[in-house]
Design a protein that fits this description.
- By secondary structure, this protein is α+β, with helices and mostly antiparallel strands.
- The protein is built from six helices and 15 strands.
- The protein has two domains: 176 residues, Sandwich (Jelly Rolls), CATH 2.60.120; 42 residues, DNA Excision Repair, Uvrb, Chain A, CATH 4.10.860.
- It is 35% helix and 29% strand.
- A hairpin with a 6-residue loop joins strand 8 and strand 9.
- Helix 1 packs antiparallel against helix 3 and helix 5 packs antiparallel against helix 6.
- The protein binds nickel (II) ion.
- Nickel (II) ion (NI) binds next to loops.
Length: 227
């Protein structure tokens, strides 16, 4: 399921991040691709091990930690250190599927990609094209969100970024290994979580039904989660 996570970053957060990115030097995006993806990809990327990528990545991870909707939807066990990419002048990334297992070069950090995430860092009216099209769920023009908003989608899906025909599209992207590997279980937990929160607002946190349903949520998570 595609989930939009609004306001991961506020306007100040976006501006801070953009100041780092706009001052950095960028390289060909194919640096990090496998041979199949490289055929389809035409964009630029912040060098993975640069100071700018480290600093900007920290800002993104801090923001994710303060975003309860992201935690509820992804139930993250591990988050890959965020990448940053830039599309302009017809830049595009054709249909591809993300690698199932990502190993960070030169380290023992490894994750299974359950979810893919794109955090938009350019306002949608500042570029033409550049929509994220996810197989079976969105068609052209695809997903284009305000700067600071994020989309989460299953890493199992074929997806692409439509050509950016004018302006510049800057985004952060990364993968999440969820505590709950199965997408169906993860979706159930999310729906239950939202339902319990709604009930708690209406009935109060201490209401016996709310307490019981909260218990069901946690006991399902205990059954299904790896930690
Ligand atoms: Ni991808």
């Amino acid at each position: 399921m595609i989930r939009i996570i609004p306001d991961v970053l506020d306007a100040d957060g976006v501006a801070r991040l953009r100041a780092i990115l706009d001052a950095a030097s960028w390289i060909d995006g194919n640096e990090t691709s496998g041979p199949q993806a490289a055929l389809a990809k035409r964009n630029e990327q912040l060098p993975e091990f640069s100071d700018a990528a480290a600093e900007a990545g920290r800002l993104v991870l801090d923001a994710l930690g303060r975003t309860p909707l992201f935690i509820a939807a992804a139930l993250p066990l591990k988050i890959y250190p965020p990448y940053f990419n830039r599309y302009a002048g017809g830049g595009t990334f054709g249909d591809h599927i993300d690698n199932a297992v990502r190993q960070r070069r030169g380290t023992d950090f490894r994750l299974r990609s359950d979810l893919s995430a794109t955090l938009f860092l350019s306002e949608p009216d500042s570029y033409e094209g550049g929509g994220l099209v996810v197989e079976g769920m969105a068609e052209a023009p695809g997903i284009k969100l305000p700067a600071g908003h994020m989309v989460l989608y299953p890493a199992t899906t074929v997806h692409r970024v439509e050509p950016v025909t004018s302006g510049t599209r800057i985004a952060s992207f990364f993968w999440i290994q969820s505590m709950v590997r199965d997408q169906g279980q993860r979706n159930l937990l999310f729906d239950l979580d939202m339902g319990v929160q709604g009930a708690a607002m209406g009935l109060g946190q201490g209401d016996p039904t709310v307490v019981r349903l909260t218990g069901v949520y946690h006991n399902l998570l205990r059954r299904w989660a790896d930690s």
